[in-house]
Amino acid sequence: MQEEQPSKEPLLLEIEKLRQEVESLKQEKADLEILLETTTEHSDTVAAELHHRAQEAVRESDRRLAQFLEALPVGVFVLDANGKPYYVNQAAQQIISDGMLCAAVSAQLPEIYQTCLAGIEPLDCGSFQPMVRALRGERVTVDDIEIHQAERVIPLEVWATPIFDDKNHITYAIAAFQDITERKRVAAALQQAEARYRSIFENAIAGIFQTAPDGHYLCVNPALAKIYGYKSSEEMITQMPTAQHQVYVDPTCRKEFQRLLAEQGEVKEFECQIYRQDGSIIWVSENTQAIYDAKGTLLYYEGTTIDITESKAAEQSLRHSEAREREKAQQLERSLHELQQAQVHLVKSEKMSSLGQLVAGVAHEINNPVGFLAGNVVYISNYISDLLNLVQLYQQYYPEPPLEIQNEAQEIDIDFIAEDLPKVLASMQVGVERIRQISVSLRTFSRSDTSAKTLFDVHEGIESTLMLLKHRLKANGERPEIQLIKEYGNLPPIECYAGQLNQVFMNLLANSIDALEESITCGKLANRNTPNSTPTIWIRTELQQISLKENDFVIIRIADNGTGISAAARERLFEPLFTTKKVGKGTGLGLSISHQIMVEKHKGQLRCISEPGQFTEFQIELPIDSPTLNSTKVTTKV
User: Which end of the chain is less crowded, N or C, counting CB atoms within 10 A of the terminal residue's CB?
Assistant: First the structure.
């Protein structure tokens, strides 16, 4: 039982206010009675009128008081000084109509009250004890009263207080009460939930903890104590009072953990090695989050810890197994080297043939509709220009057309159409021209190789290849745009297998783009005199004269500022199936095929010059039979 709870003071004040209202009404009644007595010398008619008015005023006061009491959301029960029921509001009757307010019980109230006044507590006094104490002059607050009805027991919270007259005699006791069944149910549910969560906490396999902001352990479960090698949670909290205790094998792990927690407010799956109580080392995975109150003040940290030593050992064993399997695969790869050499030639022939046919077919199919669009867009532009001029003339000479025409012009927004339609047509012309350029590039790139060489414009081949790779040069969410620097010399047409040479350009430029993307991912992009380490590809062409008796050479250089290629990798760079790319990103055939095309088909050279961490440059040397021309260098940035 709890008495005089501060949280119930507002309701007690309300009861006191009602008591004062009753006293005020009594005083008003007394004043009216005095008024009646002092007016006896008036006529009987006046006296009767005054008496009637006094009674009406009393009844009105009683009515207002009853309204106040009936409006209260709690039950109100009033006893007179002898313990007899004086007033019960509707809320009280609804709550305990079948209990303490029945006629038989109400008749016993005076007897119960007199028994209590004599110092004897009857067996059935429990429900009325607050009222009896109020009639003794006490103010009472209790929450352990129960009303037993036929089908249920109603728990009540009761506030009772005495009401005094002007001579400080107790005239009434008033009690307010409410049904707290729901509150009791919620409290019981909270106790059950706490018991369940406590069971989970105590029996969880993972370690669970809470620490104060200063690192002091607030609580740990038995699983965490076991992980750290302690016999109990209490022992761990006592012997390792703070989370800053030196348990990390690598001290920097603790600093990294604190940094992540401060920046993100939580840390997930943080793996590290720790010392157990006996000095042994285990791997753990930690998850921690900061808990704040409504004002953003840090309250504590909570999290879980899992022992992952066994999974780490299994992971290490798996890596060793994978290494052994890779070694077996390499042995098998070496044993099948001769077969793969033959396969390379077959793949090269089939790939070039299929690719050329496919690209040529696509270019042919695109060319006809593109030509149709390009030709008709011009006429459409002229027709629309004429129609717009005609509309302007109508507006000039007929500024006040019929209302229907005005409404339609306003509905379709004729001024906006006249302004926007030429822009739409211009945009269509740009798109058609773009498709035409792609079609030309596809036809240039897919030139079929024949048994004899044909004259070929090297710059046209490079540009067609760049057109097809243009989408890969643009910026994306992982890197900025790749800058393209072209320094073209004045080259004559050369005799070559055009389709195969375009394939070489495609392979080398695609490799440069791959190298730059990998360098950006690794954060190892070389500067090479470019501002802000911008990813860059250089393409340089020049005519090189060896002597008057020997053929001239076309030199083509394709370079990038990626991470470069090591000396060991350069020695095997043109071997079939050798690749420096990650697994799944390269076949190891591109450079091998390109080297064969240049050396075997064109009697030229393909070399690689690279400085790891600085740049990579591929040099193509193509012999030509055309007269030597002075090389005029033109530099273009894209």
Answer: N
Q: Between the CA of residue 456 and those of 386, 453, 459, 495, 551, what are the distances in Å? A: 45, 9, 9, 6, 17
Largest CA distance in the chain: 159
Secondary structure of residue 231 in the 3-state scheme = coil
Cα end-to-end distance, the chain, whole Å = 87
Phi-psi region of 248 (alpha: psi -120 to 50; beta: other; left: phi over 0): beta
pLDDT by residue (tens digit) across 450-492? 456 788 889 988 888 888 788 888 888 788 889 999 999 998 8
DSSP-based three-state secondary structure for 42: coil
Token output for 284: 């753990």
Q: With 50 as the cut, is the pLDDT of residue 629 above it?
A: no
Q: Shortest CA distance to 606 belongs to which of 631, 630, 633, 570?
A: 570
CA–CA gap between residue 427 and residue 445 (Å, rounded): 27
pLDDT of residue 619: 92
Write down the pTM of the prediction. 0.36
- pLDDT greater at residue 495 or residue 34: 495
pLDDT-based confidence at 582, cuts 50/70/90? low
Query: How many residues comprise the chain?
Result: 638
**Average pLDDT of the residues in 153-162:** 88
Confidence of residue 339 (pLDDT cuts 50, 70, 90): low
Whole-number Å distance between alpha carbons of 384 and 130: 96
Lowest mean pLDDT among 89-103, 344-358, 522-536, 585-599: 344-358
Q: What is the DSSP letter of 479?
A: B
Q: Contact 132/112 with Cβ under 8 angstroms?
A: yes
C-alpha 545/C-alpha 159 separation (Å) is 113
Rounded to whole angstroms, how far apart are CA atoms 150 and 128? 19
More confident call, 455 vs 360: 455
Q: Which domains does the chain have, with CATH numbers?
A: 6-185 (3.30.450.20), 204-312 (3.30.450.20), 337-446 (no CATH), 453-638 (3.30.565.10)
- Answer yes or no: are the C-beta atoms of 155 and 161 closer than 8 Å: no
- Residue 298 CA to residue 215 CA, distance in Å, equals 12
127 token code pair: 């429900």
What is the distance between the alpha carbons of residues 475 and 438, in angstroms, rounded to a whole number? 20
Helix (H) or strand (E) holding 220: strand 217-220
Map 18-38 to HEC letters: HHHHHHHHHHHHHHHHHHHHH
What is the per-residue pLDDT across 397-436, written as a single tens digit (0 to 9) for each? 888 888 888 788 788 887 888 777 787 777 777 677 667 6
Is 161 in contact with 135 (CB distance < 8 Å)? Answer: no
What pLDDT score was predicted for residue 102?
46
Strand 207-211 versus strand 298-307 pairing type: antiparallel
Please spell the DSSP secondary structure of 171-222, one letter per residue. Answer: EEEEEEEEE-HHHHHHHHHHHHHHHHHHHHHHH-SSEEEEE-TTSBEEEE-H
Q: Which residues pair with 608 in a beta bridge?
A: 618
- The two three-digit tokens of residue 281, written as one number: 């080392």
Q: What is the rounded distance in angstroms from the CA atom of residue 119 to the CA atom of residue 116?
A: 5
How far is residue 573's CA from residue 570's CA, in Å, rounded to a whole number? Answer: 5
3-state secondary structure of 404: helix
CA–CA gap between residue 249 and residue 269 (Å, rounded)? 17
